[in-house]
């Protein structure tokens, strides 16, 4: 640890949402995980993490998440991992979260929170770890954490951790959250899940009609969760609508903010969500650059 660069004041950083613009499942691996191909893009909308230094060496979460023990929270686990990976004792931290992203929505909220915690503590504690090292640590917390750590829209393979930077169009999105919570484990264990989509190359994914690509989890989620099916049917009136991750959030892509907000204003009563812009550089990394 380099004591000369320790952050003396609290630090607030964004933890943005992500979308899986498509998600193909190629097969099941020997380790029980699924082989995937996907395209990650960030949104300019998400949670916010504040880290405040302590002098007693403790890691304290100022707010608990409903139904999640602090020790199981990815934010706490990320902080614990950073402390254990440091080359000398760290001073401790209090972590605040301003939560906007729905849990179990397929927007990567927990993974994004973990990634922001890793980068925030790297700065707060003056650890000087590289992004590559932080991404390696993040993979121990979840397959989606590295893309948030590295901070660039990416083509993902393997379980989603093999990343190649990508430049999808930075369009506007209407993101809707039907009234249900979906377990990733439940969807990936379903017998009816498509697990044999042919592998594609990166270049064709950006050529021609994007509707050729899909989310292989969608059929199973539609069948198990009528709320998602109804939401997709409504949003599809205005253009292609798709599930992100294993759900429950769905999204439609639009070329302008005004078009997206017009659709958002006409949404069915009682459904939550937001309008956001797709961005290829994470808002987290933009903020860190501004602070340098």
Please explain how this structure is put together.
With 292 residues, the chain is an alpha+beta fold. The chain has two domains: 164 residues, Ribosomal Protein S5, domain 2, CATH 3.30.230.10; 108 residues, GHMP kinase, C-terminal domain (Alpha-Beta Plaits, 2-Layer Sandwich), CATH 3.30.70.890. The protein is 28% helix and 27% strand. Strands 1, 2, 3, 4, 5, 6, 7, 8, 9 and 10 form a ten-stranded mixed β-sheet that branches. The longest helix has 16 residues. The mean pLDDT is 92.
How would you summarize this macromolecular structure in one to three sentences?
This protein is of the alpha+beta class and 292 residues long. The protein has 9 helices and 10 strands.
Percent of residues in beta strands: 25-35%
The number of distinct structural domains comes to: 2
Class of secondary structure makeup: alpha+beta
Tally of helical segments: 9
Tell me, briefly, the overall form: globular
In CATH's first tier, which class of the largest domain applies? Alpha Beta
Residue windows where pLDDT falls under 50 for at least 5 positions = none
First and last CA, distance: 18 Å
Average pLDDT score = 92
Run of helices and strands: EEEHEHHHEEEHHHEEHEH
- How many strand elements? 10
Let me know the largest β-sheet.
10 strands, mixed
In the CATH hierarchy, the third-tier topology of the largest domain is known as Ribosomal Protein S5, domain 2
- The rounded Rg comes to 19 Å
**What is the name of the CATH architecture of the largest domain?**
2-Layer Sandwich
């Amino acid at each position: 640890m380099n004591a000369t660069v320790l952050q003396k004041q609290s630090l607030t950083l964004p933890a943005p949402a992500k979308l899986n613009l498509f998600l193909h499942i190629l097969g099941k691996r020997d380790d029980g995980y699924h082989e995937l191909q996907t395209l990650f893009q960030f949104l300019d909308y998400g949670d916010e993490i504040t880290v405040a230094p302590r002098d007693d060496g403790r890691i304290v979460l100022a707010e608990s998440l409903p139904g999640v023990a602090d020790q199981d929270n990815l934010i706490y686990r990320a902080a614990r991992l950073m402390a254990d990976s440091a080359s000398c004792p760290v001073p401790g931290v209090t972590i605040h979260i301003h939560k906007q992203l729905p849990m179990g929505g397929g927007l990567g909220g927990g993974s994004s929170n973990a990634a922001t915690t890793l980068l925030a503590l790297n700065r707060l504690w003056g650890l000087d770890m590289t992004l590559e090292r932080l991404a390696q640590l993040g993979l121990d917390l979840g397959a989606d954490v590295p893309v948030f750590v590295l901070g660039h829209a990416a083509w993902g393979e393997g379980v989603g951790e093999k990343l190649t930077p990508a430049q999808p169009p930075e369009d506007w999105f209407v993101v809707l959250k039907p009234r249900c919570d979906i377990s990733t484990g439940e969807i990936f264990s379903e017998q009816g899940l498509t697990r044999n989509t042919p592998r594609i190359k990166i270049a064709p994914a950006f050529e021609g009609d994007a509707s050729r690509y899909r989310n292989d989890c969608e059929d199973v989620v539609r069948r198990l969760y009528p709320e998602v099916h109804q939401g997709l049917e409504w949003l599809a009136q205005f253009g292609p609508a798709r599930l992100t991750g294993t759900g429950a959030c769905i999204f439609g892509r639009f070329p302008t903010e005004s078009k997206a907000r017009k659709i958002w204003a006409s949404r069915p009563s009682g459904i939550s969500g937001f309008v956001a812009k797709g961005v290829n550089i994470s808002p987290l990394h933009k903020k860190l650059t501004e602070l340098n």
